[in-house]
Amino acid sequence: MEKRIIFQSFWLYDEKDRQAIVDSWNEDLTDEEANDEETVAELHDEEYENDFLENYRYSELKDSRIQIRGKLGLWNGPHTIQPVICNSLEEAMDKILGRDIDYISIYDDRYGNLCVDAYHHDGTNHFILKKYTDKGPRVLNYCKTIFGC
Fold first, then answer.
1. Dist CA 4 CA 143 (whole Å)
2. DSSP-H helix ranges across the chain
């Protein structure tokens, strides 16, 4: 199975899509904002990010601790991060999307992992989010002992 895209913030839309978004936010928009492509794109992204988190509240990740693993794409090359444990999917997404991210892509990879690619001016950060289980501490200790990570 190839990766299955769940959400992408770099979205190409037509006039019908733009109008639907403007209509859904109509009371909160000025005429200038309603005609500004960047504002409409930001509203789309906010709407879909909220939908993404709402839908995952009904998944097996609901009420689960989440482990984030991944690589940061920086100006001086990729750097592997230390695994990070979060108390919820929302907390994990907040850490991943914290700052200076231009676009994101959220998808299930062919192994069933929830993955996030976060694009920024220096490159792309690649993250894998997994449910943190009782095996997690043993794996982390093994990783620290064997690989020094």
1. 29
2. 15-24, 31-34, 37-56, 89-96, 136-147
- pLDDT tens for 40-50 read 777 766 766 67
Show the domain range for 87: 4-147
- What are 43's two structure tokens? 């509203």
pTM for this predicted structure? 0.68
Tens digits of residue pLDDT in 78-87: 999 999 999 9
Contacts of 15 (CB under 8 A, 6+ apart): none
CA distances from 78 to 54, 85, 122, 124, 143 (A): 32, 21, 10, 9, 19
Q: How far apart are CA 31 and CA 139, in angstroms?
A: 54
Cβ atoms within 10 A of the Cβ of 135, count?
A: 8
Positive or negative CA dihedral for 30, 36, 37, 39?
Answer: negative
The structural domain count of the chain equals 1
